[in-house]
């Protein structure tokens, strides 16, 4: 199980990552964190990569970001996943204590908006007409798998 929260924060990404690193956690764009099923799937795939010694990154969090971004390119993955605004999405395998969360920012609700979903469709380069019968998260899972095939 992956734990999620959304925080309004003034901290830089590096400061957030430093605060949460002991909890097998990542800080990402909030619209990505709203894809809970996909983020959990990517966590599992990143763990499998490390078990099979097929990881592209030395750091687990970076491997997780690569899976989320559907790329083996670490630079592209980090750029794709990092937040730019005041709200950060936090995903972690280990529940982060409230005192750490409070030190990072203030909890907020992030609306799962159609606009954010359409923006992600564009970011992931998924044409609007692609199999409308499949859930968006399932399309991303397939894209993630294909990106890591050799």
Shape label: globular
Summed up, the domain count is 1
Catalogue the unreliable spans: none
What string, H for helix and E for strand, traces the elements in order?
EHEHHHHEHEHH
CATH class: Alpha Beta
* CATH topology category name: PF0523-like
Describe the structure.
The longest helix is centred in the N-terminal third of the chain and has 16 residues, at 36-51. It is built from 8 helices and 4 strands. It has helices at 13-20, 30-33, 36-51, 60-69, 74-81, 98-104, 114-123, 136-147; strands at residues 3-8, 25-28, 87-92, 106-107. The protein has a 4-stranded antiparallel sheet with strand order 2-3-1-4. The protein starts with a strand and ends with a helix. The protein has one domain: PF0523-like. With 150 residues, the chain is of the alpha+beta class.
Write the layout of secondary structure elements.
Blueprint (H helix, E strand, L loop, with lengths): L2 E6 L4 H8 L4 E4 L1 H4 L2 H16 L8 H10 L4 H8 L5 E6 L5 H7 L1 E2 L6 H10 L12 H12 L3
Antiparallel strand pairs: 1-3, 1-4, 2-3
Helix pairs in contact: 1-6, 3-4, 3-8, 4-5
Give a concise summary.
The protein has helices spanning 13-20, 30-33, 36-51, 60-69, 74-81, 98-104, 114-123, 136-147, and strands spanning 3-8, 25-28, 87-92, 106-107. It is of the alpha+beta class and 150 residues long.
Keywords:
150 residues; 4 strands; PF0523-like; alpha+beta; 8 helices
